[in-house]
Prior knowledge:
Blueprint: H1 10-18, H2 26-36, E1 41-44, H3 51-62, E2 75-78, H4 82-95, E3 103-106, H5 112-121, E4 125-128, H6 130-138, E5 149-152, H7 155-160, H8 164-172, E6 179-184, H9 189-198, E7 203-206, E8 217-223, H10 228-241, E9 248-251, H11 255-267, E10 272-275, H12 281-292, E11 298-301, E12 316-319, H13 326-333, E13 343-349, H14 354-364, E14 369-371
Parallel strand pairs: 1-6, 1-7, 2-4, 2-5, 3-4, 5-6, 8-13, 8-14, 9-11, 9-12, 10-11, 12-13
Helix pairs in contact: 2-3, 3-4, 13-14
The structure holds adenosine monophosphate.
Adenosine monophosphate (AMP) binds at residues 21, 23-25, 28, 47-53, 310.
Amino acid sequence: MSFAELGLSPKVLDAVTAAGFSTPTPIQAQAIPHALQRKDVLGLAQTGSGKTAAFVLPMLTLLEKGRARARMPRTLILEPTRELAVQVRDAFETLGKNHRLTVALLIGGVSFDDQAAKIDRGADVVIATPGRLLDHFERGKLLLTGVELLVIDEADRMLDMGFIPDIERICKTLPFTRQTLFFSATMPSEIQRITGQFLHNPERVEATPLSSTVASLEQWVVKAPHDAKDKREKLRQLMRSQTNIKNAIVFANRKTTVALLETSLKRHGFNAAALHGDMDQSARLKTLSAFRGGEVTYLIASDVAARGLDIPEVSHVFNYDVPIHAEDYVHRVGRTGRAGREGHAFSMVSKLDTKHLKAIEQLIKKEIAWFGDVPKEEPAEAHEERPKRQSSRAAAKPERQPKPERPAKPERQAKPERERAAPKTEKPQRSHRPEPRHLPDAPDTGGFHSGNMPAFLARPVRSA
Ligand code: AMP
């Protein structure tokens, strides 16, 4: 399959060649023809699969007809984070180099007035985080009745960050007849439920299943002490033992740990910088660009950085903390071993983490080998009796699973960027709150569930 066979316009094909893309990725080959036929698409694809171009390329072709009107964008892309929104804008710049399209980026942390002025002149494409988009809308700066195509990107991330009620409100203001392209790396039941509401008879397309981590990735678990100081020392030993590190991401579950690790690693001579959700936009972009450019070797990150960010050729991933949610493991280690390159992922596991390790192994359908010491059977707590003899995977089969400590301050990367609260009457009901996915780290999902979905979303199915 070549790009020329997908139905893209000559201008788009020229930009694709100039970008150096020779063959469409599986998600592009599957999604682009449906998108060009104005069908709704449900794409199951993670970052690194080429999913951005899978929606940008057909959008560019479709946008060749018609023109932008003041304050009425023709297309809208919703992204969960500012970084992702910036990346999609960059993709429009590269792939849309033959098009004279106006692309407005509506994200928090940058001037509201400049954004409003841009929409005022007429935008073909609006790329926005949900909160900032609603701010513009509520201030009357933007009309969404002209939107012909909506992209909801990283839907599972939106769910984690509590953005689904905002998306629901945004969809209320969009035309009934719009086309929707919906992408998610995973398909938890909450997402499955909402796709039935947001999409019309969608074409389902799928890249490599998320739960199978790639073959070029070497994965290890490392026995770690529970004491934080000892654990940091163990991390340093581990990092020093790896002589082939080109660059690495060190993941921690909490932003406080991220900050602490950054300070500690720097003090011990590691070229490290932190990336987490409490940093302001310019600091985050600066850190990312330093990491991409090789000026920073170790990026210390919370899960904010695990998804969505296109950081090519990371040689190592170190999970200082085992992620609480197994899917996050796949996202984290997915930063290395990309595009057939060799990757190395190490996860530090203390006896308190065994439950989470087990969940990860179930998800990826393989047992991860121990690097160095294999944990010996130990009493779960000092005052307990020694447990009965266990298998060599003692850590995976604790007699009693101690609860992980409650984090002092959970990481909330995408705190909604809205500067004004939504009018009370339009707020979704918050009763019957569903279980947050990342207890206790996850932000609230905002009380969304199918039971409080407004009736307008249960649209009749269009004929293709
Ligand atoms: P994405 O999954 O959209 O974040 O894309 C991951 C990376 O793959 C980006 O750096 C893209 O520029 C690159 N890419 C996307 N499509 C192709 C393609 N067909 N051939 C080669 N590289 C691609």
